[in-house]
Amino acid sequence: MSPNSTLEPTKRDALQLILDTSCDGIICTNSRYEVILFNRGAEELFGYSSSEMAGKPIEILIPERFRAAHRDYMKEFGQPSEATRYIGERGEIVALRKDGSEFPAEASISQSEINGEKVYAVILRDISRRKEIEDELKASLKEKELLLREVHHRVKNNLQIISSLLNLQKKASKTEEVRKAIEESMNRVRAIGLVHEMLYISADISEFNFQEYMRSLVHNVLSSYGCLGTIDCSVEIGHVPVTLDTAIQCGLIANELVSNCVKHAFTNGHKKRISLAIKQVDKSMAELRVSDNGVGVREGFDPYSVQTLGLRLIVSLAEQLGGDVSVENRGGAHFCVRFPVNGGDKL
Predict the structure, then answer these.
(1) Model confidence, pTM
(2) DSSP states of 122-160 as a string?
(3) 28-41 per-position pLDDT tens digit
């Protein structure tokens, strides 16, 4: 089969050269879907010669189970109202070789008229190797995900062991001051362990629910102090782009600030409220706020000069984030930690 004889000789020769040298299979059919052109690329793909395919229905190149759907598609595609499908709009199909073997192909189809007769042109490319590579990559990613999930599981278990050892030490301690210090350390360990626990049980290990993490963390802190139900606590977490490390540091900061509220903010006789909010304030900065309606902080309070372990941790963690800490009295204490965020690092 040769290109249309009505073409000028130079154009016809150029078209023949394209057909002969193309690695893709190029097939043309008439309006009855009978093959009128079958280039060398198509011969190599399917195992038929050009003369074997002349006048044959194109559907012999399609597995039996797909032929009815192919006929319906071509009928719809050939309607006058159907716009021509351009070369760039490729779709994946399953093709059938002469020897009966099947292979995945990428195909595009177009239609036009030559000498008053509708002609369909199909360009096909064997994508078997690409599919194999995709399957290998999927298997490799799955294996790495399982390994990473196991790492999170082991880290979580190891942190649980540490927490259990601290709990034993707390029970053996003779002074309330030591017991409280150990309980605070246990809360810090739990804050870290909660991240690994949530990643381990997550359906998609690449997706970490930062909002749920912070809500669970606050619940755990209140539970550890026996305050569930006695303190009205609200948690509002916006869509903040954070890395896993940033999430852990924010969790530790929130753990310290909420713990401080529980221990120092309230006196008897009024309804106790704590709020935790994290939001992005502009393209590059976010803030973590913990507020209460308690007694507030003393006049001239400077978080950078206080030597208690909890506040030293808060300041140190904020500096690791590249941020800063501020506090104000406004119907209670309002702590704010501002830190930079990167939109490309969102969990």
Answers:
(1) 0.62
(2) EEEEE-HHHHHHHHHHHHHHHHHHHHHHHHHHHHHHHHH
(3) 999 899 999 999 99
